[in-house]
Automatic annotation (TrEMBL):
Segments forming domain Aminotransferase class V: 6-367
NCBIfam families, alphabetized: PRK02948.1
GO molecular function, one term: iron-sulfur cluster binding
Protein name: cysteine desulfurase
Length: 386
């Protein structure tokens, strides 16, 4: 018999919602018209896109015409960052981000530096938080733009985005947040966060891969990113991914409807995992903010161990966890996020990320705890005999 899979890597991607899958299917088969055509079959696709746009807008407290659909969170982040030279010019422009951002932001910032834009990378405290005081200290007369993620994808730490956003709005500095890991898991309201741009990705909240979201506040411009037709307000031309967009709307709506209940369950799962592993392996280090953290993510470093070895031993038992962001896996480098927290390279390489989602059960959590402790014991005994 095939082994039973336990999926505990929901920060990398999520299982698609049954509701979202059922809603998208007709647009792959019966209702396959091009939304830019004029006949009735095509108009069904057009209406479905606009319904999804409304669902997303309602979900984050925005207006419908503030929502642009993209191919994913990385595209949305890259689009906003690449707009900086167009909005402000290459020279005499200073922007601020943090050292623990997703690589779609960090590498976009590196590209901006090559164009002459000055970038400040804020440090974070031991739990991975940017403080308003540090941000204030970094602001200069030529600061035009700030990009800070809402919640970190490796350690789950939630940033004080509303506090920072309110301050930046008063300073007339544009503010972008990468909400890819947060959206659909904690309340997100663009007005309460005081953001001008927000990026999200449907596959992180039980939608389909290949569909992203960009929120752009009214009155703020971004340059056209794809040339051709008039899709997405003439900013991103090309035939729309109707099925993926439809799934995104329903997946977000569904997650928001039971957000509190799901979050409570996931917090219980994470605490049980920490307590259960610590009972057998007392010297673990739990990374991230214990108070301001996404409900389903826990990042744990193990003394005298290898996170990669742990991950592979768990995989042999049919349990999926990760050592870092899925976007950087496969590289023999310590996590830039964990290093920014002050961990040594050895400590950073010993960590695994366990991330639960709404389809996990307490029975699976207990299996994860048992398997992690057994795997660590094997590694510890093997290294002790060397």
């Amino acid at each position: 018999m095939p082994r039973e899979l336990i999926y505990a890597d929901n920060a990398a991607t999520t299982k698609m919602s049954d509701v979202a899958f059922a809603k998208m299917l007709p647009f792959l088969q019966e209702q396959y018209g091009n939304a830019s055509s004029q006949y009735s079959l095509a108009m069904k696709s057009k209406r479905a896109i606009e319904q999804a746009r409304e669902q997303v807008a309602v979900g984050i407290g925005a207006e419908r015409n503030n929502i642009i659909f993209t191919s994913g969170g990385s595209e949305s982040n890259s689009w906003v960052l690449s707009s900086v030279p167009v909005l402000f010019g290459n020279k005499g422009t200073h922007i601020i981000t943090s050292g623990i951002e997703h690589h779609s932001v960090l590498r976009a910032c590196h590209a901006l530096e090559q164009k002459g834009i000055d970038v400040t990378y804020l440090s974070v405290d031991r739990v991975g938080r940017v403080t308003l005081d540090n941000l204030k200290a970094a602001i200069r007369p030529d600061t035009k733009f700030v990009s800070l993620m809402l919640a970190n994808n490796e350690i789950g730490t939630i940033q004080p985005i509303a506090e920072i956003g309110r301050y930046l709005r008063d300073k007339n500095i544009l503010f972008h947040t990468d909400a890819v890991q947060a959206m659909g898991h904690i309340p997100v309201n663009v007005n309460e966060l005081y953001v001008d741009f927000l990026a999200a990705s449907a596959h992180k909240f039980n939608g389909a891969k290949g569909t992203g979201i960009l929120y752009k506040r009214s009155g703020i411009s971004v340059p056209q990113i794809v040339f051709g037709g008039e899709q997405e307000y003439g900013l991103r031309s090309g035939t729309e991914n109707v099925a993926g967009i439809v799934a995104a709307g329903y997946a977000l709506e569904e997650n928001i409807s039971d957000m509190r209940g799901t979050a409570n369950r996931l917090v219980t799962f994470v605490q049980a995992t920490i307590d259960g592993i610590r009972a057998k392996v007392p010297n673990i280090c739990v990374n991230g903010d214990p108070e301001n953290r996404l409900p389903g993510i826990v990042n744990i470093a193990f003394e005298n161990s290898s996170g990669e070895s742990l991950m592979h031993l768990l995989d042999l038992k049919g349990i999926c966890v990760s050592t870092s962001s899925a976007c950087t896996s496969g590289k023999d480098e310590p996590s830039h996020v964990l290093m920014a927290l002050g961990l040594s390279e050895k400590q950073a390489k010993s960590a695994i990320r366990i991330s639960y989602g709404k389809y996990n059960t307490m029975q699976e959590v207990e299996s994860v705890i048992f398997a992690v402790c057994n795997a660590y014991d094997k590694i510890f005994r093997a290294t002790s005999n060397l």
